[in-house]
Amino acid sequence: MKFFLSLCLLVFTGQSLFCQQLIQGRVTDAQTREPVSRASVLLPNSAKGGTLTDISGRFSIRVEATTDSLWITCTGYQSQKVALKSAELWIALEPSLSTLNEVVVSARREQQSRKEVPAAISKVSNSVIQDTRATSLYQLLNKVSGVYMVNLGNEQHTMAIRQPIGYNALYLYLEDGLPIRPVGIFNHNALYEINMNEVKDMEVIKGPASSLYGSNSIGGAVNFNTQNPSLGNSGHFSVQGDTYNYSRIDGAGGSHTGKLGVYVSGYAAHQQNSWQDYTNFDKYSGTLKTTYDLNAGTRFTLMGTYNFLNTQTPGSLDSTRFYNRSYASNQRFTYRKVNAFRASARVDRVWNNQNASFLTLFFRDNSTGQLPAYYIQDIRDQQRQYLRSAGQENDLSFRSYGFLMQHRAGFKFLNSELVAGLYLDHSPSSFQATYLQIQKDVLRNYYTGYTNTDSLIDHYRLNLFNSAAYMQYEMHPVTPLRIVAGLRYDHLVYDFRNQLPPSQTKYKQQEQNNYNVLAPKIGATYDFGKGKGLYTNFSVGFQPPETSTLYSSRQLVPLKQATFYNYELGGWMPLLQNKLNLELSFYDLEGKNEIISVLMPDNSTQNQNAAATRHMGVEYTLTYFPSSQWLFRFSGTNARHTYVQYSEIQSGQTYTYNGQRMSNAPNWIANTELSWKPSFMHGFRSSIEWQHIGAYATGLVKNSPYQGYDFFNLRLGYDLKGNFAKGTGIWLNVLNLGNKLYATNVIGNQYGLTYTAAAPRTFSIGLKYSFADQKSLHREN
User: Fold this and answer.
1) Which residues does 288 contact at the CB level (< 8 Å), separation at least 6?
2) Where are the alpha helices (DSSP H) in 110-155?
3) CA torsion 536→542→548→552, rounded to 10°?
4) Could you say which DSSP state residue 550 is in?
5) Which of 80, 454, 56, 364 shows the shortest CA–CA distance to 230?
6) Band of pLDDT at residue 217, cut at 50, 70 and 90
7) End-to-end CA distance of the chain, in Å?
8) Pick from 392, 323, 338: which is nearest to 605 by CA?
9) What is the C-alpha separation between 522 and 701, in angstroms, rounded?
10) Tens digit of pLDDT for each residue in 725-746?
């Protein structure tokens, strides 16, 4: 009898399997052609019986012989119904049109829905990058609400996110979640160390992110996610130039051979005889990235990137030159030269649906040599009569060795997850500055040359250590509510070794500065359904003094560590049948011992602690897409930045600024864009963009405020889709369409205002050719 029952069971099982078929496939991003992991593959009319794609985007599923299609869904992508035309499928998912459905990785270094994050986080997608054809990153990041990336020319910049325009270490710049520079060696220009051609998308966390990323992420953290090797063979090549002799060549290509993927990208930019005098520059960037999928849950990634920048630096203009549109430099010898190399080796392991880990080893090798225009100073007597001019030539270099490891574990208790990680960065560095005698033609206000005295102003070596541990706990006690709590502990050591003899320095021959910091955060999101949600958070950020201020002979007063407390409330709401999306964030960022820069009468800067400051504002993004042809976006921020408790002494007189607005703090920043992609001309795109910067004070002393500016950009492009010249694209960008005279930044001192002039109307034209192996990868409909 047992034999008969077993035989019947075997026959029944065999018939059942015989009536099923095994479907295998791979899911990719339609734009980047990268594998899409953790996409849901579902049977029609059922939320069960499906599977998830693995780390390589692969899946396999058994279906009944009568099943004729599958549903593929993934957060951040449009759901797609796939016909079962064969037992081997390749599916390309289109990114979602709604910004509320985006996937972000910067909130915990892993993919999750934007609506699950209790913070103001914005994303510049790959499609926006491709449509914009930017020659510099500010043209992309300024589309984000609350962000003003100040263009200083030749890929040089500074930033203003929940802060006034400034040059201090209040922002953290990341590449694939790793800081591109170590703590203590911030550079407001550091994004010229990014290979723009390798960037897949960008994410901006606004407000303190120290509970996850550590020091300097006060105003915000900007993370550049790089392109992974694509499936099949694909690549592109482009050339572009503008009416002021800027030229650039880009190239990239990727391929997969079995488990191995390779992606190479780079560009070369050149500027000569531009609209502004003494602004020639060269930039070379290159990146090599390889991946190897050991099995369905394990991936190895090796990456190396190199950036070289050699640029002239003209400095700012006085009022007469600026308003006469006379863009002549008052010297012809300042420069900046940068060599930046980064390498990393990473292993990702997905143990199961509840557990995943990664380990990254990294290395940096960086040197920056410069003769900075902002260090040229006019030395005067007590009656303010000119005596002489001086400057310096300096060189900063460092090497970094470190690792980052993280593990995520899921629990049934309260449907929760725990993310924990360790970080270590050891960065030996050196700095040397040489005193220069600057020759000046006083009548023409022109610096004619310099003499290197071989007299050292600063010469020291540092061992920088940053060890940290962090954890973030997320729980989902009821369906609409998600609570997130995080904590990070950082131990920072600056081990200083003076290379100058005691008679030539005010610092000890050897000293050590230690900082031990706890940075907590707690936040929550609540889903009201139908796309409506609310979030709130409290977070703490910290900023230790930079080594360049702690040990510089120019710094007159010792600095304390700055701490910031952030209180935030925001939400999102779809309207007009999901055609209109609104996102809002209200914040109150309160600083204690905030480090600020004060411009001195001799044109030098001095860092000081402001006992208490306050930054309050609202950020908003309104996105309206009535059809697939039209898209309207309005992004902006209204803010007030004030001194709560601060005073300073200049020329023997005490100035108190309690309750006054901080300088270089626009009250309103806005960016609006209207895009049109007509259905009757597939591949054509056009957009008109408006940028507004509101009025702001130009200095703590009494100077006329700068009234801000408005300008427009026009962008046109056409990608050929037919058989003739398929893969070819052309574009025309007209920046500053109305030829507006404006300055990206204006700074005041006791002798007047200086202006960083923006470019006049500029026409930029480009040509691109893209190719893809359609035999290896095609889209199912």
Assistant:
1) 262, 263, 264, 303, 304, 305
2) 126-132, 138-141
3) 130
4) H
5) 56
6) very high
7) 51
8) 392
9) 40
10) 788 999 999 999 999 999 999 9
